[in-house]
Write a structure and sequence with these properties.
This protein has about 400 residues and is mainly α. It has one domain: MFS general substrate transporter like domains (Growth Hormone, Chain: A). It contains 17 helices and no strands. Helix 1 packs across helix 10, helix 3 packs antiparallel against helix 5 and helix 11 packs parallel to helix 14. The longest helix is centred in the middle third of the chain and has 29 residues. The radius of gyration is 20 Å and the shape is globular.
Length: about 400
């Protein structure tokens, strides 16, 4: 079961890796502006938040397998929507309802469902390692997907397809990947009726979950201001970077992120879950703020690569921590309810970041995001450094 989830995660991450880079270029090629890129990114994150909220509130009535299968079919439909539509408003509807992910992390409805599956087949001793493998697969294949962002440019330069048609071909591939993921989820075992979650989604851990959700939302709001789509736009506008160069950068940044996540279990064993989440995150955000004032593209890329090597090491620790401070019956709701405020908060960030870029304030989103993330790190440490896991 773990292997099926990891394979599905890898395929989804590959698709997300190139879509996050191609999305702003595709919208601009269709005649839309910088603000439109931010608005559409916001729509995708708002839709993800709504879907995740639905899973947390009503998901206990259905099997994890059924919800994963439905989400995979929705991914296929999303790709087809972006292939066939060009006007902004129809694309906004597809972005809201669908599964497009413009960020470097997984904020889709898939994540709480897959987290619950993994938590159910692991113990406290192995959970961080399994979540690290999950995050590693996601980061590695997202990095590989970033390299694929160069395909439309290559096709256009070689006269094979017009640039817009090349973009559409990549969104068609996104739809195909959704169907393949659906076929993988079909192999998951049917849940037994006694494995269903209780009627009340949250119980004794409600207070802890809501406190975590509030703090995670601050981090996600900051992340939303500089999602990969907007970071790619920043590189395009500030340094005139090509799609090929941007794809290579996101590949190496993703590779650095993936490698660091394999180290996370080793760090957790020595300093604990909360300390790992905080003390690897702060230096990453200092690098993000410094990149805003980098004198040239080389130093900016170096700082962003260093940020990539540190910024996501907290992800497996955070996932393991949420699953460890609630009861087994509360895990599906906890994964969803900590994800919903994060998605809602993240949804507000792209529009704000896009507006800053459109106003010519190119450094502002990076600085604001880094400062807010450091504030989140410190608040998390002071609030939860003495809270013990249940297992």
């Amino acid at each position: 079961m773990i292997r099926l989830v990891l394979i599905a995660k890898s395929m989804r991450a590959f698709a997300d890796g190139y879509v996050a880079i191609l999305l702003p270029a595709y919208l601009i090629a269709l005649g839309h502006g910088q603000l439109d890129v931010g608005i559409l990114s916001t729509a995708t994150l708002l839709g993800s938040a709504a879907a995740t909220l639905a899973v947390g509130r009503w998901g206990h009535r259905y099997s994890l397998r059924a919800m994963l299968l439905g989400s995979a079919l929705l991914m296929g439909a999303t790709g087809l929507g972006f292939v066939s539509l060009s006007a902004l408003w129809p694309l906004l509807v597809v972005a809201f309802v669908g599964t497009i992910n413009p960020s470097s992390g997984d904020v889709s409805v898939f994540q709480p469902l897959e987290h619950t599956v993994l938590a159910g087949v692991t113990t406290a001793a192995t959970r961080t390692t399994v979540f690290a493998r999950y995050s590693f697969c996601g980061s590695l294949f997202a990095a590989m997907g970033s390299l694929s962002a160069a395909v439309p440019e290559w096709l256009a330069h070689n006269g094979t397809l017009a640039l817009v048609d090349s973009f559409r071909l990549m969104f068609l591939l996104y739809a195909v990947i959704g169907i393949v993921v659906w076929a993988l989820y079909l192999r998951l075992p049917m849940a037994k009726s006694e494995d269903r979650a209780p009627t009340a989604p949250l119980g004794v851990s409600k207070g802890i979950v809501w406190r975590l959700a509030a703090l995670f939302s601050v981090d996600s709001f900051a992340s939303g201001m500089i999602v990969n789509s907007l970071l790619a736009l920043w590189l395009f506008e500030r340094y005139g970077m090509s799609l090929t160069a941007a794809g290579a950068f996101f590949f190496w940044a993703g590779l650095a992120t993936a490698s660091s996540q394999l180290i996370a279990p080793w760090v957790v064993k020595r300093i604990g879950l909360i300390n790992t989440m905080v003390f690897t995150h702060i230096p990453a955000n200092v690098c993000l703020m410094a990149a805003a004032f980098a004198p040239n593209v080389e130093s900016a890329i170096a700082l962003l690569l260093l940020r990539g090597a540190l910024s996501q090491m907290d992800v497996p620790a955070r996932s393991a921590y949420v699953m460890s401070v609630v009861t087994a019956e509360e895990r599906p709701a906890a994964a969803s309810f900590t994800g919903v405020p994060r998605s809602l908060a993240a949804a507000l960030g792209p529009s704000l970041g896009g507006a800053m870029f459109a106003a010519g304030m190119m450094a502002a989103p990076l600085v604001a995001a880094g400062a807010l993330k450091i504030a989140y790190d410190l608040a998390l440490w002071f609030a939860f450094r003495r809270v013990r896991e249940r297992e």
